[in-house]
Design goal:
alpha+beta, single chain
């Protein structure tokens, strides 16, 4: 037996053990990356749902605010989308309540010729994804409407 043959007989398989350990480490890194990616995808989906719900609620408020006839004093728990004039593409649930406890002009306003009516608008929006868990956002907003003291100042003028 020469020296080379003796060296081959004394191989203990250290290289095989190191390669197997490296394979295990690389497999664990791959699995961790997969789980992290899956978690991030789920998170981004939830963020999208909550953003959709927020914009639906905000859209509901903006649609209602665009028409002053939605804000009539002494009207409580009013659903403006019961009026066909108010289209509801956002599918938000909006409620308007008159607040009789607030009187006078808002801060920074001074006016002698006008009365002020205060309202509380609550808009609830849902995401429209149709997927399992729904996201909901509620936006609440105070609204002030300036009312003329004498309603007779409005006349229809025909030309």
């Amino acid at each position: 037996m020469n020296k080379e043959e003796k060296h081959l007989i004394n191989e203990s398989g250290a290289t095989l053990v190191i390669v197997l350990i490296m394979m295990i480490v690389l497999t664990l890194i791959g699995l961790a990356s997969t789980f992290t990616s899956t978690f991030e995808i789920m998170l981004s989906g939830e963020k999208r749902k909550s953003t959709d719900a927020f914009y639906a609620a905000e859209g509901g408020v903006n649609i209602v605010l665009s028409k002053y006839v939605n804000f009539v004093p002494d009207r409580y728990n009013y659903n403006p989308f019961s009026d066909p004039q108010n289209q509801n593409p956002t599918h938000a649930e909006v409620k308007i309540d008159f607040d009789p406890n607030k009187i006078g002009p808002p801060k920074g306003f001074s006016s002698i010729n006008n009365l002020y009516a205060y309202f509380w608008v609550e808009s609830k929006g849902n995401d429209l994804t149709g997927a399992g868990h729904k996201s909901t956002t509620v936006i609440e907003q105070n609204v002030v409407r300036i009312l003329p003291k004498d309603e007779s100042i409005f006349e229809v003028v025909k030309e």
